[in-house]
C-alpha cells in the first residue's frame, strides 16, 4: 500500500481500534485529559467536576418508555456518533443499571418548560427535563462538551470520545429565540434551509422566521393561485452593484424559484424534529409587487405590474377591496395548513400610501369606516387580517409599523426601527420581539476591511451583537413580561449564495444565541470570546463558511503630544500577534506585539499583522496605513463645513477610514468649497500635501475638482505653494498629491474646490457634488 492510501486509512483504522476497546480501557488511555466547558450559550448554573465519562460501543442510551419525542432525542444523541466515531450506542427504553449508561428522563418538578438538569459522572450521564425539548437542549450541551470532531461527516481518529464530568441546571432567559431569513430577494435550496435549522438547534434557538414573499419574488406555492409562483416567483433580471448607486445596471438574467407545498411540509417536519418553530411571513399590504404582477386585479391601478428587479420600497401595494381580502384569506388558509406555528407574520412594514391617496375606492373606504387618514386605513387592513387569523386560532406578528394608526388588538410587534416601537407596544400590553436594525441586522458589514463582500451598509460586529440586551431599562413589572426575546434578521439583497449567507450569519448568530438564552449576569464578553474560539473547529467540520474576523488583528491609533501611538487587538485572546511596520508579510519570526507602540515621526507606515499559535497562522494578515505627518494632533479649522460631527480633528489623526464605511466617523462630507487651516505651531520644511478623498459617481460622491495649498509664517499673510487639478474617476479611493518645492511654513491652508452641480442623468443630478474628505497628510 502506498503512502497516500495509508494516510487516508489512518482515521478509519484508529476509529475501528477505539471502538474495539472497552469504555474503561478508553478512559484509562487519556484519563488525565483536561476538562474544559466551552458551551455556548452559557448555562444558567454549572458546577465543574473531576473525571470524565467515556462513550464507546458498549454505551447504552436509555429513555423513558411511552414518549415518542423522547425516543427521537435518544436516537439523535446516538446518531451523533455513527459517522465520526464509527459506532452507534445502543438505544432502548428502561432505567439505568450498571455503568456507562446515558439515562434520559422526564420530571414534572422541573419548573421551566425548556429547562433541563444534566449530571455527568465517570459512571453515568443523567438528563432530566420537564419535557422532550429540555432533554434535546441537554443533548446539545453534551454535543458541545464532546470533541469538535463529533461534527465531522467522516470517520475521525480521536483518542477518546469522552465528556468532562459536570452538573448543569439550565433554562433559557427568553421564550422567543429567533433567526430570520429572507428568501424573496434571493432564493435558497431546501437543503440549505435544513442546515440553517440545524445550526439554530445546536445553539438552542427555537424559532426560524421564514420571509417567503417580497416585491422581488413570491416563494411559496399556493394551489388556488398558481400564478403567484408561475409569474410572481421569477423576475426578468437583477440589479448589479449597490441599490444606492445610479444609474442602475442589471445582469439581464431571469432569476427565481419557489418551494412546493411538499417541500414546505418536509422542512416543517424537519424543524419539528429539532424543536424549531417556523413562522412564515406573507408580506401585506406592502412589499407585494410580485403577487400583484401575478394578480394585478388586487392592486389599486389594475396593472400592468412587473416583479421588481432592484431593491427598495415600491408603490404597488394591495388595495383594501373585498376581493383582495378574500384573496389574502385564501392564501393564508393554505399557509396555515402548512405551518403549525401559532404565529403568522404579515410584515406590515414600509407600505407607501401613494396609491391609496389617489384611489377612489380607498378614499371612499376611509370615509365609510370613519378613518382619519391612510395610516388608519393600514390599521384597518391589518385588523381585518388579524380577525381572520384569530378565527383560525392563530396570532398575528408584524413589524413595528403596524403600530401606526392603531395597533390590532392581539398583535405581537417585532420592533425593528430601534426599540421605541417595542417599548410602546409592551406598555400597551402587547407581546414584543426585539430585532432592532442596529445590533441585530446581520446584513450589515461586520468588518471595516475594504475587501469585505458587498453589503447593504452599516456596521455591526459580533461584540455589538453580544452586548445587546433585549430587555429595555425603561420597562418594569408587567410591561417587561411582554418582551418575549430577540431575533436576528438576515435580509439577502446582497447575498446571492448560501455561502454568503453563512459568512454574514456566523459567528454573529452564536453571540445572539447567548444573548437570548443565558442569564444577563452570566454574560461576559471576555469570557465569551474564550469559549467562542473553540467553536470554529466545529463550524469547519460542519462546512460552515463563517466569517473569520475572530482571529483578525484590529488596530487602534491615538494621538497625544503630537505622537501617534498604535495598539493591536484580537478577539482570540490566547493567540500571539506578530507584526511588521514596513509592509512586509508577518510570520512567527517577525516582531511580537507586547504593548502599545509609539510610531516614528515623519513617515508613512504600513502595518501588517496576524495572529499565531505555536508558530502557525490563525487568521488572515490585516493591514493599516498610518501617517505620522507634521500635522498629526495639530489644531485644524474648517471653513465650509456645516456639521458638528464628526469633528475636524479626525483629519489630523494619522489614519484613514475604510472605503466601504464612509459614514462611520472617519470621513467628513461637504457640498461647497472647503478650506482647512492647520497650525503646525512652529515653522517646518514641507515637501508635499496629500489629501484622501473618494469617488462614487453612482452615489453622487466626487473628489474635489482642484486642491490648492497656501502657506504662511504667521497665520495672517498666505502665499500660494502649489495646486493640482483632479481627473474624476468612476469609483475608488482618491489620493490627491500636491508637491511643494523648498517651502517652509508654520500655518498651512488647503483649499478643496467642489466640482459643482451634478449633471442630468447622473446620481444626485441638480445638487452640488458631495465630497468626502479623510486625512490631510502634511509631509
Level-2 CATH architecture of the largest domain: Alpha-Beta Barrel
| Main pleated sheet | 8 strands, parallel, barrel
**Spans of 5+ residues with little confidence (pLDDT < 50)?**
1-20
Percentage of residues in DSSP E strands: 25-35%
Assembly state of the chains shown: single chain
SS element count, helices: 19
Rg from Cα: 30 Å
Taking all residues together, what is the mean pLDDT? 92
**What is the number of E strands?**
36
What best-fitting shape do the alpha-carbon axes yield?
globular
Q: Which CATH first-tier class of the largest domain would you pick?
A: Alpha Beta
Topology-level CATH name of the largest domain = TIM Barrel
Instruction: Please give the domain count.
Output: 4
Coarse structural class:
alpha/beta
CATH superfamily of the largest domain: Glycosidases
As a percent range, the share of helical residues equals: 10-25%
Biggest sheet: strands side by side, in what order?
8-9-16-17-18-19-20-21
What is the distance, rounded to the nearest whole angstrom, between the alpha carbons of the first and last residues?
Answer: 66 Å
Amino acid at each position: 500500500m502506498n503512502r497516500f492510501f495509508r494516510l487516508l486509512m489512518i482515521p478509519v483504522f484508529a476509529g475501528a481500534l477505539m471502538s474495539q476497546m472497552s469504555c474503561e480501557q478508553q478512559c484509562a488511555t487519556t484519563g488525565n485529559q483536561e476538562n474544559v466547558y466551552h458551551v455556548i450559550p452559557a448555562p444558567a448554573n454549572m458546577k465543574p467536576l473531576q473525571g470524565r465519562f467515556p462513550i464507546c460501543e458498549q454505551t447504552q442510551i436509555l429513555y423513558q418508555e411511552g414518549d415518542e419525542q423522547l425516543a427521537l432525542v435518544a436516537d439523535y444523541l446516538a446518531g451523533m456518533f455513527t459517522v465520526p466515531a464509527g459506532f452507534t450506542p445502543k438505544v432502548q427504553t428502561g432505567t439505568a443499571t450498571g455503568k456507562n449508561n446515558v439515562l434520559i428522563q422526564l420530571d414534572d418538578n422541573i419548573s421551566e418548560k425548556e429547562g433541563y438538569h444534566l449530571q455527568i459522572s465517570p459512571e453515568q450521564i443523567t438528563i432530566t427535563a420537564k419535557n422532550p425539548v429540555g432533554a434535546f437542549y441537554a443533548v446539545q450541551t453534551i454535543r458541545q462538551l464532546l470533541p469538535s470532531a463529533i461534527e465531522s461527516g467522516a470517520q475521525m481518529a480521536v483518542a477518546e470520545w469522552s465528556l468532562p464530568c459536570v452538573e448543569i441546571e439550565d433554562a433559557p432567559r427568553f421564550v422567543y429565540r429567533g433567526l430570520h431569513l429572507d428568501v424573496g430577494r434571493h432564493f435558497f435550496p431546501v437543503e440549505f434551509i435544513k442546515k440553517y435549522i440545524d445550526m439554530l438547534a445546536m445553539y438552542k434557538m427555537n424559532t426560524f422566521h421564514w420571509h417567503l414573499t417580497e416585491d422581488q419574488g413570491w416563494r411559496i406555492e399556493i394551489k388556488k393561485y398558481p400564478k403567484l409562483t408561475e409569474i410572481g416567483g421569477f423576475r426578468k433580471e437583477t440589479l448589479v452593484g449597490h441599490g444606492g448607486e445610479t444609474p442602475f445596471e442589471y445582469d439581464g438574467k431571469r432569476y427565481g424559484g419557489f418551494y412546493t407545498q411538499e417541500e414546505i411540509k418536509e422542512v416543517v417536519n424537519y424543524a419539528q424534529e429539532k424543536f424549531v418553530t417556523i413562522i412564515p411571513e406573507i408580506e401585506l399590504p406592502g412589499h407585494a409587487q410580485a403577487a400583484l404582477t401575478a394578480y394585478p386585479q388586487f392592486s389599486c391601478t389594475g396593472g400592468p405590474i412587473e416583479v421588481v428587479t432592484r431593491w427598495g420600497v415600491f408603490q404597488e401595494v394591495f388595495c383594501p377591496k373585498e376581493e383582495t381580502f378574500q384573496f389574502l384569506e385564501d392564501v393564508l388558509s393554505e399557509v396555515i395548513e402548512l405551518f403549525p406555528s401559532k404565529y403568522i407574520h404579515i410584515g406590515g412594514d414600509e407600505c407607501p400610501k401613494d396609491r391609496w391617496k389617489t384611489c377612489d375606492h380607498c378614499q371612499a373606504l376611509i370615509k365609510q369606516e370613519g378613518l382619519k387618514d391612510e395610516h388608519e386605513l393600514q390599521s384597518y387592513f391589518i385588523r381585518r387580517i388579524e380577525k381572520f387569523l384569530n378565527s383560525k386560532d392563530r396570532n398575528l406578528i408584524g413589524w413595528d409599523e403596524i403600530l401606526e394608526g392603531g395597533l390590532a388588538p392581539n398583535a405581537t410587534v417585532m420592533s425593528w426601527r430601534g426599540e421605541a416601537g417595542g417599548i410602546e407596544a409592551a406598555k400597551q400590553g402587547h407581546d414584543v420581539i426585539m430585532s432592532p436594525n442596529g445590533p441585530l441586522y446581520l446584513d450589515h458589514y461586520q468588518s471595516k476591511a475594504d475587501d469585505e463582500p458587498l453589503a447593504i451598509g452599516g456596521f455591526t460586529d459580533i461584540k455589538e451583537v453580544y452586548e445587546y440586551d433585549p430587555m429595555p431599562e425603561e420597562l418594569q413589572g408587567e410591561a417587561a413580561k411582554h418582551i418575549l426575546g430577540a431575533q436576528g434578521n438576515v435580509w439577502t439583497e446582497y447575498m446571492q449564495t448560501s455561502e454568503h449567507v453563512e459568512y454574514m450569519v456566523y459567528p454573529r448568530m452564536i453571540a445572539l444565541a447567548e444573548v437570548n438564552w443565558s442569564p444577563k449576569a452570566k454574560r461576559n464578553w471576555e469570557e465569551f470570546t474564550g469559549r467562542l474560539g473553540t467553536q470554529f473547529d466545529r463550524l469547519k467540520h460542519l462546512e460552515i463558511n463563517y466569517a473569520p474576523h475572530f482571529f483578525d488583528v484590529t488596530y487602534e491609533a491615538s494621538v497625544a503630544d503630537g505622537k501617534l501611538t498604535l495598539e493591536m487587538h484580537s478577539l482570540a485572546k490566547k493567540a500571539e500577534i506578530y507584526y511588521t511596520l514596513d509592509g512586509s508579510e508577518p510570520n512567527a519570526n517577525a516582531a511580537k506585539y507586547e504593548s502599545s507602540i509609539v510610531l516614528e515621526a515623519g513617515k508613512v507606515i504600513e502595518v501588517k499583522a496576524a495572529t499565531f499559535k505555536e508558530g502557525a497562522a490563525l487568521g488572515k494578515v490585516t493591514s493599516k496605513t498610518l501617517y505620522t505627518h507634521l500635522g498629526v494632533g495639530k489644531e485644524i479649522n474648517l471653513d465650509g463645513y456645516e456639521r458638528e460631527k464628526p469633528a475636524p480633528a479626525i483629519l489630523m489623526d494619522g489614519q484613514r477610514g475604510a472605503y466601504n464605511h464612509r459614514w462611520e466617523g472617519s470621513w467628513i462630507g461637504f457640498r461647497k468649497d472647503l478650506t482647512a487651516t492647520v497650525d503646525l505651531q512652529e515653522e517646518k520644511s514641507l515637501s508635499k500635501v496629500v489629501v484622501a478623498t473618494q469617488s462614487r459617481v453612482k452615489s453622487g460622491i466626487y473628489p474635489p475638482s482642484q486642491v490648492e495649498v497656501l502657506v504662511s509664517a504667521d497665520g495672517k499673510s498666505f502665499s500660494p505653494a502649489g495646486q493640482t487639478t483632479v481627473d474624476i474617476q468612476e469609483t475608488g479611493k482618491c489620493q490627491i498629491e500636491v508637491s511643494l518645492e523648498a517651502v517652509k511654513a508654520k500655518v498651512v491652508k488647503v483649499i478643496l474646490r467642489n466640482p459643482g452641480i451634478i449633471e442630468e442623468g447622473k446620481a444626485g443630478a441638480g445638487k452640488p457634488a458631495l465630497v468626502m474628505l479623510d486625512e490631510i497628510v502634511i509631509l
